[in-house]
Amino acid sequence: MQLPPKVTDRAFARLAEIGAAGQGQALRIAVEGGGCSGFQYEIELDDAKTDDLVLEGQGEKVVVDSVSLPFLENAVIDFTEELIGARFTIENPNATSSCGCGTSFSM
């Protein structure tokens, strides 16, 4: 049985701050081939599609397409603020290695 990704309250709060739902959009998390480790995350505001998994909280939505879902099983989607900047991050227990920037990984 596949465990869906989890979204932290901090990530949903950031989506609320930028008003994604008010614009009729959700945060899309996708996995594509490429990057320095083989796969890379694509994170963007987008419309939900009919085959997406929709994760909801605080009136906001995070969506994952059916092709990306197996790569993100039991992952944690978060929002972090550091001295070098603020961004959505993914802690992926399925990744065997990742690059230094955290946007690409291998399995």
TrEMBL record:
Residues covered by the Core domain: 6-102
Alphabetical list of Pfam families matching this protein: Fe-S_biosyn
GO molecular function: 2 iron, 2 sulfur cluster binding; 4 iron, 4 sulfur cluster binding; iron ion binding
Classification via InterPro entries: ATAP, ATAP_core_dom, FeS_cluster_insertion_CS, HesB-like_dom_sf
Gene Ontology biological-process annotations: iron-sulfur cluster assembly
PANTHER family, sorted: IRON-SULFUR CLUSTER ASSEMBLY 2 HOMOLOG, MITOCHONDRIAL (PTHR43011)
NCBIfam families on file: iron-sulfur cluster assembly accessory protein
Name the record gives this protein: Iron-sulfur cluster assembly accessory protein
Organism expressing this protein natively: Parasedimentitalea marina
